[in-house]
Model the fold of this input.
Amino acid sequence: MGLSKEQIAQRIAKEVKDGYYVNLGIGIPTLVANYVRDDISVEFQSENGVLGMGPFPFEGEEDADIINAGKQTITTLPGASFFDSALSFGMIRGQHVDLTILGAMEVAQNGDIANWKIPGKMVKGMGGAMDLVSSAENIIVAMMHTNRAGESKLLRECSLPLTGVGCVKKIVTNLAVLEVTREGFLLLERAPGVSVDDIKAVTEGNLLVSDEVPEMQV
Amino acid sequence: MGLSKEQIAQRIAKEVKDGYYVNLGIGIPTLVANYVRDDISVEFQSENGVLGMGPFPFEGEEDADIINAGKQTITTLPGASFFDSALSFGMIRGQHVDLTILGAMEVAQNGDIANWKIPGKMVKGMGGAMDLVSSAENIIVAMMHTNRAGESKLLRECSLPLTGVGCVKKIVTNLAVLEVTREGFLLLERAPGVSVDDIKAVTEGNLLVSDEVPEMQV
Amino acid sequence: MINKKVKSVTEAVNGVKDGMTFMLGGFGLCGIPENCIQQLVKLNIKDLTCISNNAGVDDFGLGLLLQKHQIRKMISSYVGENDEFERQMLSRELDVELIPQGTLAERCRAAQAGIPAFYTPAGYGTEVADGKETREFNGKHYVLEHAFKADFAFVKAWKGDEAGNIIFKGTARNFNPVMCGAAKTTVVEVEELVPAGSLEPNQIHVPGIFVQRIFEGAKYEKRIEQRTVRKKS
Amino acid sequence: MINKKVKSVTEAVNGVKDGMTFMLGGFGLCGIPENCIQQLVKLNIKDLTCISNNAGVDDFGLGLLLQKHQIRKMISSYVGENDEFERQMLSRELDVELIPQGTLAERCRAAQAGIPAFYTPAGYGTEVADGKETREFNGKHYVLEHAFKADFAFVKAWKGDEAGNIIFKGTARNFNPVMCGAAKTTVVEVEELVPAGSLEPNQIHVPGIFVQRIFEGAKYEKRIEQRTVRKKS
Done:
């Protein structure tokens, strides 16, 4: 039901504005780059030390020394630059990156996010996620509305260890676009063919619904 | 009486060892570069952002963009590098510079130094001196033994506002070479023709004198 | 590529107001934003707080702003070589805060990098530490220092591209890189502005993300304070 | 010029001992000190603490040290892509401290720059901040983090000169520059070692003062972890 991962990325791409520097997390967020309007100027930052990332290289042109934070071979566009990890996180911590898009296991209605650790399971680490969520003024979470067990990932309180507190501003799931407000998740848009009741049914956290909730344009 | 400024510099030059990175303050310390043995490898750092300074440029070859911390036009040697002020003071604070040579108005027998401010007079500022003296493990002060009024500059306690506390290791004046020890100024060498009594007479701080104090070789 | 190019110095300093705090790059007269300073003089804005390692000389650099009494407070490490500065300071027309040079650089860098505060040994046991928190780490004493806050940073670079990427030459680099992104708006003037893609991505000293406006400055004087030379023998 | 060149990797890692703490540059397998790692494997020193953003893969990078159980503790931000690592971690043979990537970088930089401690927002309100001092600045919460201490830093650069000056290529730069001078001894391996004076002084990424030993490494494999390409259309 609802959007595909590509469609989630497509919807999030609309949040990317002219002049934005954007950090994309691994997974759905990486796909966002494919859908950004080409009449606006945007630069993608990867925390391992590159600004101005372009598309993947053509076969045979990949360079082991030029990768993104997902360790994928990449290319750069005119105006790109390389830098060290301290400067890279200076960009992030210093709020020079305008928008951070990342995945999550859970988001709480106060904006808390959990996306790095499941107790009892192998923990791979937080990478740059804690720096990103504690610093960015504009954070969008891209995720499925429910986990594999069908349980809501939009909660009153996160049950998993936190990545950051009160930081998420917006969430785009396969079912809905939601804003984190003081009173809870404000439902902004429904995925095509998805009803408000469908969304209510899988949203554990407080859901604020206005009289009319428009359908997403994707 | 005693050494000229050039001779003080010459004596200090003997403290510069093979493989040292050295920061030279303005005044007598600047002259030290002229007297370092040419069979050892030494690099001079200037805190405004250059490592590997060479001699002054030939007439007509000076470059407004290449100066030292005294704002003098300089040249660089093979292996030189330029960097920003944060990295430069990272070198200093991180104790990567092996030796700091600077002037002083007063030195106390516990190693305190005052060299930046005379209350009531125009204060020009400490520049990089406070960073240098609080960080360097090896600090040599180059100065005249007395001030213009003939008063000792080697004191029990500094009377002027401090630049740093307990940091000076060695002092070379026109009259003597002294080491700062727990008990006071240990007289290591006398300037040619200067007696121990001459030095005692103008040293207000506690002076430790062994049976035989050799004459400086300059 | 996000284009940061502005057409003129007028556009570059747009938004400056009385009472603002500015950062200005340069060490002595080396690497100072000559064009921006001249424009600030022209605009005659007042009550400025200037964070700059030095204060120029009587007739150049920040000295030009001092002459017109535009500066209310200087935050610097060394302010010699300027008679008018001395006069205003002694007559208390001008407020002066002297801080260690490394602390000045690191407080800029902290502002750039989102570090609100850090510990440094500089100034411990001196009047610079008066009223500040001190703390011992591994048997050594340190002073807590905070990131600067500023409205504009005026920076001078050698070359830059339209994406705001910049490169410095020699010791004209000094405080300029650490001031980029350390203020709400960073304005960079360069001797040569080139199209994006002209600079080698590995050699960029400051990426354009830290820069809001960039322009090619005119008529650089690049005055030398202490011309020191030796004779060819 | 102070010459930092050593003849071989053997000489370069001279002094490494059981129980030491090492910093190792690289992000994933990009920009890792391949030659030094192989030498550490060969020397079979044990009980190592390794500060490195990642832990290699099973048969390359730090994975080689893990295979031989040489590492007692890893301090990293992300340790996926390594089955042996997972096995040792779950069986508690290996101690793992996970810290935010930006904090890892800044703790290296702090060690390099003589900053004993600094405040960062990363990890506030999470288990990363457990037992650490937290503090509010301007209404935002921060965690106090300390400079690392390490015995050796192993760094991989692209080009270097005999004075120890180094230059990096692409994203192989990553943690390498901030680890230089952050340990008691910094060892740099480069793909190409040139005489002092061959590198442009304005383009040096890390000045030789932060480097104790430099050598030209052999047979770089530079393995790609995620070869991602598109077809020419």
The helical segments of chain A are 5-13, 28-32, 85-93, 129-135, 196-201. Chain A has one domain: 5-208.
